[in-house]
Amino acid sequence: MEHLKERTIRGGFAKLCAQATNFVLRVGFIAVLARLLSPEDFGVVGMVTTLTGLISVLSNAWLASGSVQQAEINERQLSNLFWIYFAFGVILCIACFVAAPVVAAFYNEPRLVAITRVLGIGCLFTTIGVQHYAILQRQLRYVAIATIEATSLSVSVAVGIAMALAGYGYWALVAVTIVLPACNTICLWTATRWIPGLPDHMADVRPMVRFGGLITLNIMIVYFAYNLDKVLIGRFWGAGALGIYGRAYQLATIPPEDINAGIGGVAFSALSRLQDDPARFKRFFLKGYALVISVTFPITILCGLYAPDIVGVLLGPKWGAAGETLRLLTPTVAVFGIINPLGWLMFSAGMAGRSTRIALVIAPLVSAAFMIGLPYGPNGVALAFSVAMLLWLVPHVIWCVRGTNVSPTDLLGAVMRPVLATGAAAVLAFGAQLYTVDFSPFLRLLIGGTVMVSAYVVILTFVLGQKDLYNDVLRGLTRPISLTP
Known about the structure:
With 485 residues, this protein is mainly α. The protein has one domain. The chain is 82% helix and 0% strand. It is globular. Residues 476-485 have low confidence and may be disordered.
């Protein structure tokens, strides 16, 4: 525990560097393929996005979070967990194969039979590496994790672009979804050098499986609820409309997802080790929470202000309709930035059951919103989604922190300065937008982004006095620590 703070900061920094690399790769990949493929190509693959996204959910290794949250774990337990997750992957793979004709019939799209069955293989690749990822998390080897994630994404992006250039169309997108977990798992096995033994006495892992299973169930419920919009748009408005909506949604959510993923895994591991020290637990959480908000908010608001320019620069002229959709999704993404880190608090404190109950409330709420907005097309769905999430924000926060030593007032104190700085910087960026209305989209975005980022950094660090927080992070990065775990 002596050097937990420095290890956590360095682990978080390594993860954020990897997520920054991943962000560049993902955005670059989208920009290239948006010019090589049509909205319909993206829409056809997006019709089974609940399955492709399930692979991403599992690759975050929340399934193995029970073994990370435990203070002690032995070799036999690790092996037993591996075989449980492997069996889960086999079940998912078989389910995709069997359900493929049903998915194709639902969308009236025969091409989805082959796509769905191929995507099921990705589930198996992912679950084979889940326990190895958890081992690296327990060892706080976040530099290794960051390297593996960046390498895997680079390889999958290269394969996808090569296939698109070769004329394989939507199969380029399918290939990325398979190559990414396959490469990731190979690298994880290589990094850990751990080979599981044969399963034995499964009873001794039941508490860990139950904890990890609750977290995974929670994330899957929320994931499917959040992606019902894409299912409905694909079913009732077609592949082209889904392609437009899906790319707008992806552009909106990539920054907060990468930021939360970069800090979340590190925060979960560190907070799990501080369960018996409430004062340090609270300090660690609030600092991590403030860091996430301080990075997420300005990016989100900038996306809202310059949505059409972002779409024009990254995707090209044929995607112009995605600009308004991106703008309408901005409030939803801002709410995600506030509520997603609260998962660290509940998971690390062992409150997976509460998180699942919250998910069971969110699911019908957003599903109803999608149904209300569906008759008005993709933009109607985006607007309804944002309204529902804004209405849910305060009850969600209160429910998450109830019974913990973190209060809503503590959270308000953590977010107040980044929010104020974002608001002031957004006013200046909006003014810059008015003065550059006749400029090209790229130049307008460059000027507006520079104005907002510069103003935000100055206001947050000097005017609102957040300089000490970032100095503390910098000291954690530079202070020498022991190499022993």
